[in-house]
Amino acid sequence: MFTAEFLDAEIADEPVGSRVELGSAVEDVAWLLERLRRVSEQEAHEERRPLLRHLLHALLLILRRRARSSTRPCPPSTRAVFTLLRNEVDQRFATTRRVEDYERIIGYSSKTLSRAARAATGLNAKEYIDQRVLLEGRRLLAHTRLSAGEVAQQLGFSELTNFIKFFRRNGGESPSEFRRRESFVEPDRTSVEAGQGKARRRASRHGRG
């Protein structure tokens, strides 16, 4: 399918590079990759090829833009600090979102951690941690049937309301709004049938009234 003619020559011919720091574009890239996977798995139809082409163009444009903006190499010492931060965040983001905790665990000041995170991703340390939590929350909402409360619990929020506020503040919408728009999981048949049964009973009572 992805032949030489599939993409515009100016996009296809410009190399992106072997490694690109996504920074704040990580969510856009994740969204596009999921859409590409989902559309590519659909049965062939007349809109499938142009839609795949559009999605692939958008992905390559983002990668090319990020590659151009990351031409200045990150110093090895700074990258080493960021690697420590990234590894600890991946292990502990559901336990703590406080930069001060990572400062204590890693042994570098909050300022040093933020400097390293910003050099590598364009985000300060707190923003990087929050975006990692948001990414996992979105993944669970889009790919599992866990309730918002169960997702909140897995991510270390003691109250669902705190998770909703966090999600809205960092993602611009509520967990339920995101799930309605982005879920890849088919609704549970039992839940759907139960909902339909309740709707029929309400309609029946309304009719008798």
What does this protein structure show overall?
- The protein is an all-alpha fold and 209 residues long.
- It has two domains: 9-69; 76-182, Arc Repressor Mutant, subunit A.
- Helices cover 69% and strands 0% of the residues.
- The protein has eleven helices and no strands.
- It has helices at 9-12, 26-40, 48-69, 76-92, 99-106, 110-121, 125-143, 148-154, 160-171, 175-182, 189-208.
- α7 (125-143) packs across α9 (160-171), α7 (125-143) crosses α10 (175-182) and α8 packs across α9 (160-171).
CATH class call of the largest domain: Mainly Alpha
Please tell me the overall pLDDT.
Answer: 78
Shape: flat
Number of domains as seen in the coordinates: 2
Rg from C-alpha positions? Answer: 22 Å
User: Could you name the ranges where pLDDT drops below 50 across 5 or more consecutive residues?
Assistant: 1-5, 9-18
Q: At the third CATH level, what is the topology name of the largest domain?
A: Arc Repressor Mutant, subunit A
Helices and strands, in N-to-C order? HHHHHHHHHHH
Query: How large a portion of the residues is in β-strands, by DSSP E?
Result: under 5%
Separation of the first and last Cα atoms: 59 Å
CATH superfamily of the largest domain: Homeodomain-like
Helical proportion, percent range: 55-70%
CATH architecture title of the largest domain: Orthogonal Bundle
Put simply, the count of helices is 11
The major β-sheet equals:
none
Number of DSSP E strands: 0
